[in-house]
What we know:
Layout (H helix, E strand, L loop, with lengths): L16 H20 L25 E6 L2 E6 L3 E7 L7 H14 L5 E6 L5 H12 E6 L2 E6 L3 E6 L14
Parallel strand pairs: 1-4, 4-7
Antiparallel strand pairs: 1-2, 2-3, 5-6
Helix pairs in contact: 2-3
Amino acid sequence: MRRKHRRLASNPELDITPFLNLMIVLVPVLLLGMVFSQIRMIELNFPGMEAGEAPEADELRLVVALIPDGLEVLDSERGVIRTLPLVEGEQDFDGLRETLKQVKQRVPDKTDIVLEVGPEIDYQTLVTTMDTLRSYQAVVAASVVEGELFPDVALADAPENRALSDTGEGV
């Protein structure tokens, strides 16, 4: 007769130490990564009118044309307000900001503006122009604050034959 020996049944312990080490490293890395991934959103309005709707005759329709040759600030009723050619190969955002500040002083209640963009304009120039149209930095009581210019920016395509005009240097 053979004797059967019973093996001692033991429950193996689950070693979770490597998993815990991974979590200790992974959680802070993921939390730090969340800080750097911020999403910014720019609200846009596209120009257009309902069928049969016409603009008011005395309403100022401010337009900024952004083309590779420079910037042009226009009033659709009265024509060119100011022409800003390139300065050392770059768009003249400082001149645009000063022109828009002067226009804003004359019509402080106006908040909308149309930005006509040429097809050759790169994305960064477009975003910088939109930021310039929206606000400017001002110093008030030894603090830098954002002054509002025209926060309601509508985008449109610039006509393909758009070129800078030689007139309209004054505001």
